Structure formats: C-alpha cells, structure tokens
Amino acid sequence: MSKFKTKFIDFFRLLFPSTGIELIVFLFFLVVYGYLGSYISIHHKIIFDARIPWDAYFSFDNKSIVMTGGSFERHPLSYYFFNWIRELALLFSGGKMDGNFRFALAWFSNIAVSLSVLQVFKYLKNIIQLPLFISLLLIAFFGSFSTTILLSFTPENFTYTLFLLTLFNHYSAIKLKKEEKIPALALAFSGITIGGLTVTNIVKVFIPVAFEKGLFKSWKKFGNAVFRGFFTCICFILLYLNRIDFKYENIFSKTNEQYEKFSNVNSTPIWDMILSYFFGGNILFSNFIVRDKHNMKGYDYKGIVMDVYSSWIPYIFIAVLLVLIFWSYYKNFRNKLVQVLMISFLFDIVIHCILRFGLHTSYIYGGHFAFVYALLLGWLFYSYKDSPKILSLLFAVFSIMFAYLVTNNYLRMTEFFWFLNTYY
C-alpha cells in the first residue's frame, strides 16, 4: 500500500507544479491563455457552433471533434475521451450548447495546454538543468507559438495530444536519466491514450524503450522490452477493434480514403508548404485567407486559413531555427534523450513532408511536435554552457527571434480578431 501511495504522489508531482516557480509558470499561462479563451468563448461563437462541423478557423474540426471524437481510423479512441469532455461541459452549461458550454470547452483546452507548457519547463529545468532564466525564456518562446496560442482555446485532438506527448517525453526522460525501464502498465497506458487520440503517435511511445540501458546487450532485457511492446500493442488493438465492432476491414478502406483526400493537394509548391506550413505555421503565423465554406446541409459560413509566407523574413526565421535545431542534434548526437526527441520529430517529417499526408494543412499538426523545438534549443544551450562567447551569440540570436515571433503573432492575432468581429 505504501508503494502504491508513493507512486501516486510521484505521479501528481510529475503532472502538476511541485515547486514555487513551477506553480508561477503554470498560473501565468493559465491566466494568459484563460483570458484569451474566455473572451473568445463569451463574445464569439467560433469555438463551437452546432451549424459548423469543420474549418471555421485554420482547418480545426471543433464541432465534429467535440461531438464524435473524430474519424476512427485516425483517432480510434478519442470518441470515449470527448464523450467525457462534452458531458462535463454540458454539466457546466446546464445541458445547453451555449456560451457557458463554449467557456467550459475553452478552459479544458487552456488547462491542457498550460500543463503542456509546464511539462516543457520541468524538462528544461530538471532534465537538462538549464539556468532558470534561460528555461523561462524558452517556455515564453514556446508559449508564443501559433500552435500553443490556438490550441489554448480549441477543443481538438491536437490539444490533448500536445499534453500527453509532453508528459510522456518528460516521464520517459526521467526514466532514461535514472537508467530505469518504463514499466509495462505505464507504457500500455501511454500507448492507449496517445495512440488513441492520434493513431500514428503510438510509435513515439516505443522510441524511448529502444534507448534503455543495456537493451541490446542482454537477452533478458531485450525480451522484457519486446513483452512490454507486445502487451501495449495487444491492449491498444483490442480496444481499437472493440471501438469498430471488430470490422477491421473498415480501417484499411477508410485509411486509404483519408490518405487520398489529404495528400493530393498540388496548388502550392511542396517546398513552400513544407517551410510555410509544416516547419513554420505551427510557430509563426503566416498570412490569412478568408474563404467561403458550407456544411453540406445548406448553411454557408466563412472560414479562415493560413497562406504561405509572403515576405522573406519568416523564411529566414524558419531557416535559422532549423539550423539551431540540427546544430543541437549534431552537438548532442551521443545523448540518448536528444535522439528520442529527434527520432520522434523525424517520424512526423516522414508522415507530412515525405508521404505528404495533410501537408497543405500541416500547421494544425503542431501539437504532435512543436514542443521539440523548445527542448532541442534547450539542449543546444546546455552543450555550450562552458563556452561564454558562443552562449552569448546564441542568446543574441534567440532574443531577436523571440522578439520577432511575439511581434508577428500578436499582429496576426489582431487580424484573427477582426475575422471574429466581422463574422462570428
């Protein structure tokens, strides 16, 4: 009983603030994001409008996700999760899908994203052990991304995927740093929750296991890892099949249909979509376009989407950021924690940039990988902790980028509010 109690307490210390500075960080983002989401939910209908199933802003499927959890082939178990979210929001709103309902949905998203920022901060402070000032700058940088801003008030799979992935990366980093293995139940729970919200992300759960100490030097350890992976897969597959009444043939037909739908868009050069949408759009807002939409049932509405960048400055920003990211990877190549982050990131690059799935709207997938930028930048600062000149150069470059990020995203959000005031 004592062991269970200790693990329970450790889990809550991992999940929530456990020190004064962590509490300040969490409350700061909770208040900032909370004010933004509260204002939008009270004064505008865009977070949830029963008439609009998808694409009201930046290709998010708010109403569809809240009501159904999304398509089973991509989000196999999110149906159950969003049933709880919806019922809790309805409890708050007295059973009505009104402003109170939207307010509750926005605050659920706010809490999830604020906890995600907290997990990134804990990783920077406790795993990388950066000076507090640099850790605070990096989470301010991450907290200003277009992805974190939008997800802080958006009821979507990506919102909760961001939280689960940041939590799992922090947890697995603790285990790897202590040279401990990830327990079978923890691995299975992570696989079910993360893979349940977005099926492809289950692969990321197994990446840290491959870096456990002595895994490929001991048949016993290797066999144990295989068992944990097999156990996780079996649990996930059984729950997945139960969700679709064991009609497994639907998975292949629907998956192929979705791939054809989301991978054959050629209106923009691929290189520009990669830079503007995949690498850039989840960090730095680009230009906005207002388009006419309809819900297939006779209701017309306006939707706002991102365009490619129209100025050379954002391209320079993204290029410099990528140089810093791959510089960090080069400098920390032998660090297994960095390898876990980069392999996970490369997995998303393959899916969206090489296989081109959803590349034309890949700015909405930032919840799957945007946090990696902040963590790899943290490892870059760590690698030069004993080189004051290079550290000063990095700090100067980062400060300029941070200033541009905040300015750009603030101005773009004013354009977003013009859209809300005009149409919603």
Question: In short, what is this structure?
Answer:
68% of the residues lie in helices and 3% in strands. With 424 residues, it is mostly helical.
What does this structure look like?
This protein has 424 residues and is mainly alpha-helical. The protein has 17 helices and 2 strands. Strands 1-2 form a two-stranded antiparallel ribbon. Strand 1 (288-294) and strand 2 (300-306) form a beta hairpin. The protein starts with a helix and ends with a helix. The mean pLDDT is 92.
Assess the beta-strand content as a share of residues: under 5%
Low-confidence stretches: none
- Rg on CA atoms, Å: 21 Å
Largest sheet, strands/sense/barrel: 2 strands, antiparallel
Elements, N to C (H/E): HHHHHHHHHHHHHEEHHHH
Shape: globular
What is the mean pLDDT? Answer: 92
Number of strands: 2
Distance between the termini: 54 Å
The main sheet orders its strands as 1-2
Q: How much helical structure, as a percent, in the residues?
A: 55-70%
Structural class: mainly alpha
Question: How many helical elements?
Answer: 17
